[in-house]
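Quick check before the chapter quiz. The format below is the same one you will see on the exam, so make sure you can read both the input and the output lines.
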Amino acid sequence: MALHQITIAFPEGWRGENTDWPPDMLAGGLSATLNVAHVGPELQKRAGQYREPSAQVSAGVSVVAGFTADYSTGQKFIIQTDDGRFYQSSGTMHTWAGMGTSGYGTPATFVLLGDVTLIATNSGTMLGTSAADNTFSLASSAPSARFLTTFKGRAFATGHDASADEVRYTAVGATTGLPTVADWLTSNNAGNRLFSQGEGSRIVGIAAGRDEWYVFKPQRTYVVTGQTPTSFVTSIADREVGFYHRTVAVVGRGLVGANEEGVFSLLDGKIEPLLDPADILYWRGLNHANTSAFAGAWVASKNQYRVAIQDGSTWKLLAGVLEVGKKIAWYRWDPPARCIFTRRVAGKSYDFYRGGNADGYLYRMDQGTQDASASITSYAQTGIHDGGAPWVDKKFTRAWVYARTRGSWNLSCTFTVHSEDGKPTQLGPQRVVSLATVAGDVKRATIPLDDARGWGIDLKVTMDPDQAASIHKVIIEYDDMGIGHGAPA
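Here is the expected output.
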């Protein structure tokens, strides 16, 4: 028999689910008294979600799509609810006005060209609005479309069942050289482009970068270069992968997007997977029946891409921190996020927003210390750790917790020992107290594990609502008892 240790480093080593996030991601929304000094890898109690007090459009409905329209005269915000109706507000979100009484297919997509917002509904109807009104207008020549983008002063539309391989684009004024948003007539230098016509798979998305635009089919990505329609040249990306339209975000010179197989980057015609093997297994284990619910967004100031998806009847959120020269760190959470989008809040600063679940509200993420005035009890749950030998029984003696708190009685650890002799043995919750924190100060607490016997152990760390805390690592000591059921052949 001999003593051994299992080290769980946060966040890289927890191998499980959590509602906590590294403070490099979210701690900026907390007050100074509710922050702990950040040192190295850790998980910290996440920031809250601020429910916009005047954003309720109708009780009993969910916000399923949103768009920030930065007009030359000021910002307005457009949302769509799950009954298909649209509402528009000023940038302050103090009042909301219904944009007509009709419902359209959900979820919609949006683009801004000049001072006109184009809206493509999931039923194929294209709508338009401007800063001056809360109504819709529609040129008779506008095509049916589900997806929109803009490139070099033109609007591009695609995704309708009747023209599954076609992309239409607007005219540019012959005299002024300015976009003519309502003009889709080929006689006025508007036009169309076909992509693998008749192959049997429809276009599921379209996007534009700095010097090219992209068309996505379920298993193919087309890259179109050239500044004008007469110089367009189409090539095919190197992997048989396509992105769903609402997941696509422009990140630097490239794109990030998602489909049922995972999350990918696209740069210079090369597609690279961004999830690590464990996250790929998680992603592919979800129920992706409703692919129109996929929605992604990028905020440069946070170095984050977040994607919300529907897993059967529940909603999942995956957030990736994209840092140059570092492996992408992915974090999972389960808020009722029916959609996710961004809004410019000050200067060039953007924040993530999400729609709630059947409450008619919008939520500004990563703000304050509460979720819609409700206290947060966040947690991190590890996977089962077995010391690399699950066939050997162990006697777990004690654990050392390296953490920091502001205040006391707000971080607790619950260890669960797994054996073949009966139901798991739960030890705790054991409070970790009096870990007063100063800059760079990480405290250690010792927790007895009562010589509990089993082949593996897991840990749940809970952070209570009222104070700040973070956890860096946990070391678990066990005695190799030298008995078990034999190593696998």
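If your answer matched, good. The two ends are 22 Å apart (CA to CA).
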